Amino acid sequence: MLKKLKSYTLVILGSCLTASAFGLIVLPNGFAAGGVTGLSVLLQKIIPLPVSTMVLIINISLFLLGLIFVGKEFVFKTFLTSLIFPLVLEITQHIHVFSELAADSFVSSLLAGGILGLGCGLILLGNGSGGGFDIVGVILNKKFGTPVSIVMYVCDFAIILTQTISNGMLKTVYGVVVILVSTVIIDNVLVRGESAGRIFIFSEKYEDIRADLLTRLDVGMTFLDAESGFNRERIKVIMTVIHLDMVEKVKRSVYAIDPAAFVVVDNVHYVGGRGYTMDR
Q1: Does residue 21 sit in helix, strand or coil?
Q2: How confident is the model at residue 203 (pLDDT cuts 50, 70, 90)?
Q3: Distance separating alpha carbons of residues 141 and 237, to the nearest angstrom
């Protein structure tokens, strides 16, 4: 129950942030936008309705399609985002807290990308969907095996390219900056809290090191069979994956036992399973 509540909280918070990025910065600055929001901006030139209303109409239409072709389990969280996004978008369009940044479009695009990426990342962490063309991608994937990402890229590219005709090249470039920054932020949000250090320890005193790491630092490990490149001798390599704040402690422990030990440390962006995210 708690896990489900956390999931929905992330989806709701993420939806609010993504809508805020568009309502506070992207739309007021006239940046090119992809997705349903970008399509709504284009349709607004033909149909005299607020962008938020157009977003709501399109989202509901796509939601109904998803309900028919995909099923209830997937579209329920999408239903939340489909309602929350246009509501928050309408509210934030009347808030001018970032109006001072209007003179610096580049900074505005960076900030918008950061907020948008954080919001999208939280939605994905909550196993939710941003709605919109996500549903189209899922439907086409289910029916024809088309990759969801391809559908999203084609839709966004077509919408942004069309906006170039009316907005001009510069506004389109800033819109692309927003997308690029948001992509980087999404990647960082998805791996935040999961990053760890992986350590390889090469030492003849591997048994002493093993005993110290297990008993004093409570560090789990795996022995790997290897062969030295110079003497072609069979050796044991200790491999362990630990939280980053433990890396220095492990290094000090190893060098206290064997100052000549060869130690390699690198970053790991996801770790899961027994002994790490599960009890041993």
Answers
A1: helix
A2: very high
A3: 44
